[in-house]
Design a protein that fits this description.
The complex is a heterodimer of chains A (about 250) and B (about 300).
Chain A lengths: L1 H12 L2 H17 L6 E2 L2 E2 L3 H33 L2 H7 L4 H33 L6 H28 L2 H16 L1 H9 L3 H12 L4 H12 L6 H20 L6
Helix pairs in contact in A: 1-5, 2-3, 2-5, 3-5, 3-6, 3-7, 3-10, 5-6, 5-11, 6-7, 6-10, 6-11, 8-9
Chain B lengths: L2 H21 L6 H17 L14 E4 L3 E8 L2 E8 L8 E5 L2 E7 L1 H11 L3 H18 L12 H9 L2 H15 L10 H16 L4 H29 L1 H12 L7 H17 L13 H7 L3
Parallel strand pairs in B: 1-5
Antiparallel strand pairs in B: 1-2, 2-3, 4-5
Helix pairs in contact in B: 2-4, 2-8, 4-8, 5-8, 6-7, 6-10, 7-10, 8-9, 8-10, 10-11
Classes of the chains: A mainly alpha (about 250), B alpha+beta (about 300).
Chain lengths: ~250, ~300
């Protein structure tokens, strides 16, 4: 637990959460106050019930990017600073140490996401939609799932792969995951053996778009697809297994 | 990590995998089923649109992912389905002939969702469009009329799009016809029909027989289906989307085959103005322009 909290303290010290707060207020304010106009299919999105699911998508993606940035360097930096050696000397196993650092990353990304959702809640109240607060609060659980997927995968990769490559791979996963529906459409036109292979490869990308869609469905009182949530949990579980089993030679 | 912790972790993983399988939608997915319910709701409002005996849900609908089809028979809110190997590869909206039966083939909703969000075109509307082709072929054997004289849509477009004089006249035809949908001219249907047929004949004089014959065929085949599709969009998405996606674009010439869809839809709209019962006696055996001419003789 001490290691987890230490990661949180470290990230606060590095002002990561201030960036999140400012970004969150900017994004939500731009779309909620009439300063900016969000148009979908040529129609202006003024209704908050329509706007909130779109904002949830944007905020989840933004928080996913923050989660990636937070997680990318945590484990490598610990080894660079030789903090790891202090931990080993106290008899903490490498699996537990990596898992604690990954959990720290998840916790920081959740705090960051909660700040983003708080701004969304505040603007919902300001715009007279206070009855949506409860559903926005439940929707934030989906943000936690989204962020945990990114944090755990990034943490797992960062154990073995240099930070730059981890970041690059995870940016690709984040963008492709957020555009899973569009990728489904693009790959649907592919035929033959190559097409079948690419379609299956797309299925391996975490369905981040699906997670955000379920949050939007919840806010709009539409049915939620439990399968998408379970698949998200499986991604976290697999990444967690990698965090537990992967080893750094420096240790 | 201690052994007990690892065992617990593995058990959680096993539980997740089992839950994943248990919640996986097999067969007909709920969002595909909803598409059919939506078509059924539209039908309650729109009926056969004047085309006697037309109902898209009279035909089986195959939701395809390009590898397998879920072939659904809809009957009064009940969906019976079977799974089969996909009859078309890739992203397809079409009709498939299985013996004497014509079936509608559309992409699965999960694949279509992005297009729906971008274009305001629900999958249910594609079912209406393809359902109309199934109707044309079941009731009027339209595909049987396809002979070697009819160019493919791609061949025809490349011929027409490369003739600048004919292209200009085509654009003029669309402009004349689109006056039927602008309020200030909507009362002059006969006048519009006379001017349109005159311009259309002038342009046909520039084309080879095979090209003119092919144009008539596609205008009749696709134009009427586009007309039906537009009415379904109007009912489902409202007047604003209908005007933006169908009426505002109707008079615009585009390379490719979309212009035949637009021309045919406008011809149907002109016929609606000339005689709202024109569909009663129409059996897809002649070009729409000939039907228009009957009303101005």
């Amino acid at each position: 637990m001490e290691i987890v909290l230490n990661v949180v303290r470290e990230k606060i010290r590095r002002k990561m959460l201030y960036i999140t707060t400012i970004l969150g207020i900017l994004v939500v304010a731009i779309f909620s106050t009439g300063t900016g106009t969000l148009t979908v299919g040529g129609k202006s999105m003024n209704d908050y019930y329509v706007l909130v699911p779109i904002l949830i998508n944007v905020l989840n993606f933004l928080n996913g990017a923050i989660a990636l940035a937070i997680s990318c360097s945590t484990i490598p930096q610990e080894y660079e600073r030789r903090t790891s050696h202090l931990i080993w000397s106290r008899g903490v196993s490498q699996s537990r140490y990596h898992m604690s650092l990954a959990a720290g990353n998840v916790l920081v990304s959740w705090i960051s996401g909660v700040i983003l959702y708080l701004t969304l809640g505040v603007f919902a109240v300001v715009n007279g939609y206070s009855e949506m607060l409860g559903r926005i609060a439940v929707a934030s659980l989906f943000m936690m799932l989204y962020a945990a997927c990114i944090c755990m995968l990034t943490s797992a990769l960062s154990i073995k792969i240099p930070t730059l490559f981890t970041g690059t791979i995870m940016v690709i996963i984040l963008v492709c995951g957020a555009l899973r529906s569009a990728l489904n459409l693009m790959t649907a036109a592919l035929t033959g053996f190559g097409g079948a292979v690419i379609k299956r490869a797309v299925l391996l990308i975490p369905n981040l778009a699906g997670i955000s869609t379920q949050a939007g469905n919840l806010v709009q009182e539409r049915p939620v697809n439990v399968h998408v949530i379970i698949m998200g949990l499986i991604v976290i579980w697999i990444a967690g297994l990698l965090v537990i089993t992967l080893r750094r030679e420096e240790a | 990590m201690k052994k007990a912790g690892l065992v617990l972790y593995i058990l959680v993983g096993a539980a997740l995998v089992i839950s994943g399988f248990a919640t996986m939608e097999k067969g007909l997915k709920e969002n595909n089923r909803e598409v059919l319910y939506k078509v059924a709701d539209d039908y309650k409002e729109l009926g056969d649109m004047g085309f006697a005996g037309f109902c898209p849900l009279d035909y089986k609908v195959a939701f395809s992912d390009g590898e397998k089809d879920i072939l659904v028979s809809y009957n009064d809110g009940k969906c019976d389905y079977i799974e089969r190997k996909a009859v078309f590869e890739g992203l397809v909206g079409s009709v498939y002939q299985d013996g004497d039966e014509f079936q509608i083939v559309v992409p699965q909703y999960d694949t279509w969702a992005t297009l729906e969000a971008l274009n305001d075109e629900p999958l249910s509307v594609v079912v209406w469009h393809e359902g109309f082709h199934a109707y044309q072929n079941t009731q009027f054997n339209l595909y049987e009329n396809i002979t070697d004289d009819i160019y493919s849509e791609t061949e025809l477009s490349s011929i027409i799009d490369s003739d600048s004089a004919a292209k200009e006249l085509f654009e003029h035809e669309l402009k004349i016809l689109s006056r039927i949908i602008t309020e200030e001219n909507s009362g002059d249907a006969v006048e519009i029909a006379i001017e349109y047929t005159k311009t259309a004949k002038e342009r046909r004089g520039l084309l080879a027989d095979a090209a003119a014959y092919s144009e008539d065929f596609y205008t009749k085949l696709e134009g009427t289906a586009y007309y039906v599709e537009a009415q379904a969009v109007r009912s489902e998405m409202g007047e604003e989307t209908y005007i933006k996606n169908y009426l505002d674009t109707a008079s615009k010439y585009v390379d490719g085959n979309a212009k035949y869809y637009r021309l045919g839809m406008l011809e149907c709209m002109l016929l609606d103005k000339l005689d709202e019962n024109w569909k009663d006696s129409y059996s897809f055996d002649r070009p729409l322009i000939e039907v228009i001419e009957d009303y101005i003789r």
